[in-house]
Design brief:
single chain, binds hypoxanthine, 11 strands, alpha/beta, 31% strand
Length: 243
């Protein structure tokens, strides 16, 4: 059975957008995961809330390997994930959607691979195209049809978190070519690629990054903006599943 994986990020915890849903859990070699299985127009969908259904798991504590291993085991062949991000790019405004095509990895303390040596071979993943171009094109087309402002391409800077960034860090990321900043896409995207699943992420711009924004950033502000964008996001995901 082949299934579609949806990994919901900040503000995206509600699997009731799908039909025939039931909660399940699965033991993986990396620990247990909770997921919701459902359907949409006859297609099987597996939904995982990246931060847990009550947002209790911070970015640096997410069991990325268990989530990705579990989705693979459950027959997922492609993954649509969502991420709330800050913007470093004046053309990417709060309320816009970005289909990330590159990342800069500034994480510090995460296990980033399934290939740790020992009884697994040493492997070096090609990440020329970490985010599936075909999946991004589908999301772009559906989003544009739905009237969203959706940018196909952008460089996501992944920080360790859980704190937000200093303005000096944001200035540096901007000089390095970063467009957006978030805390979760690495190692998730790499693990999905190692597991040979197509992966795309819908980044939702919730705020301008620290130092660009005139006021100090709060998690509440991010969640509030995500709430405003939730209906559009839901339609985009369902439209892409239908496409
Ligand atoms: N920085 C890091 N992560 C984020 C941000 C941000 O500005 N906004 C939403 N997630």
């Amino acid at each position: 059975m082949s299934a579609i994986g949806v990994i919901g990020g900040t503000g995206v915890y509600d699997p009731s957008i799908f039909e025939n849903i039931h909660e399940e859990s699965l033991m993986t070699p990396y620990g247990e995961i909770d997921y919701v299985q459902g359907t949409y127009h006859g297609k099987t969908v597996i939904f995982v809330a990246r931060h847990g259904k009550d947002h209790t798991i911070p970015p640096h504590k997410i069991n990325y390997r268990a989530n990705i291993w579990g989705l693979k085991k459950l027959g997922v062949t492609f993954i649509i994930s969502t991420t709330a991000v800050g913007s470093l790019n004046e053309n990417f405004k709060p309320g816009h959607f970005v289909l990330t095509d590159q990342f800069l990895d500034f994480t510090k303390n995460r296990i980033t691979t399934f290939y740790e040596g020992g009884d697994r071979p040493v492997a070096h993943l090609d990440v020329t195209n970490p985010y599936c171009p075909e999946l991004r094109d589908i999301l772009q087309k559906v989003g544009a049809e739905q009237g969203l402002t959706i940018h196909n391409g952008g460089t996501y800077v992944c920080t360790e978190g859980p704190r937000f960034e200093t303005p000096a860090e944001i200035k540096m990321f901007h000089m390095l070519g970063g467009d957006t900043v978030g805390m979760t896409n690495v190692p998730e995207v790499n693990l999905a690629n190692e597991a040979e699943m197509a992966y795309a992420t819908i980044s939702m711009i919730t705020n301008y990054a620290a130092g660009i924004s005139e006021s100090a950033l709060t998690h509440g502000e991010v969640v509030e903006m995500m709430g405003d964008m939730a209906a559009q996001l839901k339609a985009l995901i369902l439209g892409a599943i239908d496409a």
